[in-house]
Amino acid sequence: MVTGDHPATAAAIADEVQLRRPQVPVLTGAALPADERVLAALLDRDGLVVARVSPEDKLRIARALRSRGHVVAMTGDGVNDAPALHEADIGVAMGRSGTDVAREAADLVLLDDAFASIVAGVEQGRATFVNIRRFLTYHLTDNVAEVTPFLVWAFAGGQFPLALGVLQILALDLGTDTLSAVALGAEPPSRHLLDGPPVTGRS
Fold it and tell me: Structural domain of residue 150, as residue ranges?
């Protein structure tokens, strides 16, 4: 958690949302080491809270975490936050209270200034990806089964009769590519969609 608030305020909020690990001290921007490698090693742990950070500190933190291979999402609303928003992998700006400079530098703008919208957006994005994969898997499986008899007929030089005619193919497509396929693409997000890592499509 990186914030410009007072350390006591930052610690209270972090403890309330169970973000801070027990016995982990709250760091301040002035206490951050100047060396980038030392800073990256210090920040590379869970449950850490850094308070009283300046826009320059946010930029250094984004660079340090990216150097350790992390995907960094940075939020901000002021003009001075623009460099950190641009440096992060995903810059998130506030739509209502944010400045035009911050919104231009960000990759994502929260129109309602609510962090809960980020979670809802991630959930919807994962659900859309999963639904597209289901839809394509269903269609590829269906269409391969329809195309195979035509390939056998073509490679055999017409020695074997067609197993499926044109009207039969159209009838199959009307039965399989309408309601059933649309239902797969419109599945609502599952309850445990955000419990694990994002689906990469390689598994």
Answer: 121-185
